[in-house]
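REVIEWER CHECKLIST
Item 1: Sequence provided? yes
Item 2: Single chain? yes
Item 3: Sequence as submitted:
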Amino acid sequence: MADQLLDAAGLRADDRPVREMSPAEQQMLALAVAMSTRPRLLLADEPTSQLDDADRDRLLDLLVEIADQQGTAVLLVTHDELVAARMQRSIHLRDGRIGEEATAAGRYAVIGADGSIPLPEALRAEWGSGRLVSIDAVAPGELRIRGAETGGDHD
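Item 4: Structure as written out by the authors:
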């Protein structure tokens, strides 16, 4: 697998020191080294943050393909929604807690231990902290959340 990555990056016969390689080449090399031992788990912290779009996509293509071939679970940390979308499952943290989970089936809020439900970003931006809301059960398993119509603003 490491040879496959090195070939894809054009680095197999490259004997330059790492410091002379581009950021994309360094990331490809790091991925090849990490996957060479066929780990069951790979931890990757912002592996594409220094790459342009084309290099980001090429690295992710290889990472997903080789992790799948080897049966390696990948725990990847990113702030880039495009990178997160390439993974089978993503967990979105908000204020140090799990706020949402996304898979191919959709994006879902996660109910906290205290019963709280994080609002989607668009509603958080529109309503703001301290806003009064009305929550009604409209059918089994279905809720309706509405901003309360009040005489004053509680933001």
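Item 5: Key structural point noted by reviewer: Residues 119-155 form one domain.
Item 6: Recommendation: ____
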